[in-house]
From TrEMBL:
It comes from Periconia macrospinosa. It is found in: Membrane. This is Amino acid transporter. Residues 1-15 have a biased composition (Polar residues). GO terms for molecular function: transmembrane transporter activity.
Amino acid sequence: MEKDIASNSTPQGANIESIEGGKSEAVDIENKVLSAQTNTSGSLERYINVFSTVNFSFVLQCSWEAAALTFQFSLTNGGPASIVYGSIFAGIGTTLVACSLAEMASMDPTVGAQYRWTAAFAPRYNRFLGLMQGWITVFAWICSCTSNPALVSNVIVSLAVFNNPEYVPKRWHTTLIMCAVTVFPFVGNLWLRRIINPLEALGAVCHVVFFFASIITLAVLAQRSTTAYVFHTLTNDVSGWTNPVVAWGVGLLTVTYPLTGFDGVLHMSDEVKQARTRVPRSMITSVVLNATMQFTFMITVLFTLGDPAIVSAQPLPIIEVYYQATGSKPATNLFVSMLGIIVFISFFNVFASVSRLAWAFSRDHGLPFSRTFAKVNTRMRTPLNALILVACCLCLLALINIGSSAAFNAFISLPALALYISYFFPICFLLLRRLSRSSSQIPWGPFRLGRVGPLVNLGAVCYILLTLIWMPFPTTLPVNGENFNYSGPIVGAFIGWAVADWCVSGRKRFHVPVPWTDG
């Protein structure tokens, strides 16, 4: 049986030499990482088998459900052109990104993932860039974690309005629902960890069954849109963005955001059996399947949209799409509720991933109070303190909803922006290393892109850069405090915080176990 890298982070107090300046000696990847096996913080149990590994990413992304619950962004920006051609663009681009990260996962399947690889491949300033990448990745995943309860709460509130038109939702209602929803994955990951595998299986079944049920129902019952509307309509006269290129780019949020998060299984690597082969396979399979399902579902929605003006005016347009097709409130409630349930099941996986990431970053002394958050409960074999940290962060972020009606937009655009930034640097540095004279020292794993590797990495970098351009744009004009897109300033402020942390204490405390170096 293939030998796994069983431990992926530094024991507390370990003295691991950094590779700043690219002057450290080359070391063997497995010996370096396995030297970190003995630690005082406990270890995690490898309980995720091959079937659950694929299910984990497949359900975590739940792309067609997320696109169904957020396609209002594209209806007013770009319209069908953003949805159809944007889905193709996002599917191909995300596959390139997934293949690039999968190649690195095959070399070093580690919970820390992006920050470990950034520190390993960066030509210089390795510890600084590793710490920055760690902060960005942890921040990105905590933000990504907010999108699940935000989507679920939006489904609950929208269905309440749909069934009781007299009900007027308050912002604090949504905040309380988000906090309540967060309790379930916290409890599940703490005391009911063994239910996650069967829960993932149930989520995968629902993910597929209701995909076909939705497509068949809409195709049979709904009024047809014209082919010209679906493939030749670019909407640039609704949101205020009159430039068609800008309108199309802003509308990409609907189709790019749902395909992020495929790296979630990476941050569970310490609990995956035969991680060097199964983690890369899970990532690529998940992206290809979810991209295909998302494209197919969104094409179906466009052909069965009904009156675009009526649909786009709704708080949650997918409710109106199902209702126009079925003419039945119970049927509409069923379909929309299932979207929320699948996103809710996905929340268990997202919550598990971000807690393991925070735990690993703490073990490498990346977070303040690292000794506290790096502990593993020896009885439960779970990073209890990291779970509590994530739950508290989610509840605090949910408070944003009370102060701003643009919070839902932020909960969607912020995770996408931060996650794409976290993907960019390790892929960029791998590409640079690949093209350098030290490329022969890269310890390739079982999955390798070979000669097409540089082209795949370059395509991934270009896709990420093109996507990042549009993420911070506001979705409507004129811009005011209510519709401003806060994702860009928030990410900028957080990067400033990370730099300040490096200057104050991060440069002294942070130790990243770099598994290979320049010769």
